[in-house]
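Q: Given only this backbone (119 positions), what sequence would you predict?
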């Protein structure tokens, strides 16, 4: 089994910063793309940022120039550095990873971590 464990959420004032981490563990042959999604109350889950196994990244327009996604392949961990946070960034943030187990790729999700930005 594969698990994704997130950490780093919390309450921060507008303009502040937070860093989210997500570590994958279990039977892992290769981690392909990893990403962060978020879901605010009453809204659909949306992609925030993603990073491929070779380090290529893409971001939602709403977070470009404020958020940075990175990964440490040796630690099977993906990070999301969030700067200049806004109240509209408030949401539950979910880690996602596409992981090869033996010969098959599977999508896995973390349990979610709450980020609350106060005005």
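A: Predicted residues:
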């Amino acid at each position: 089994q594969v698990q994704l464990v997130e950490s780093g959420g919390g309450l921060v004032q507008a303009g502040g910063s937070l860093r989210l981490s997500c570590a994958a563990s279990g039977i892992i042959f290769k981690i392909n793309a990893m990403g962060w999604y978020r879901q605010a109350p009453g809204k659909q889950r949306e992609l925030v940022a993603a990073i491929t196994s070779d380090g290529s990244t893409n971001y939602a327009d709403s977070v470009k120039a404020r958020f940075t996604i990175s990964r440490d392949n040796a630690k099977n961990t993906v990070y999301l550095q969030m700067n200049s946070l806004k109240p509209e960034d408030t949401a539950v943030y979910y880690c996602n990873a596409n992981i090869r187990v033996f010969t098959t790729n599977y999508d896995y999700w973390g349990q979610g971590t709450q980020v609350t930005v106060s005005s």
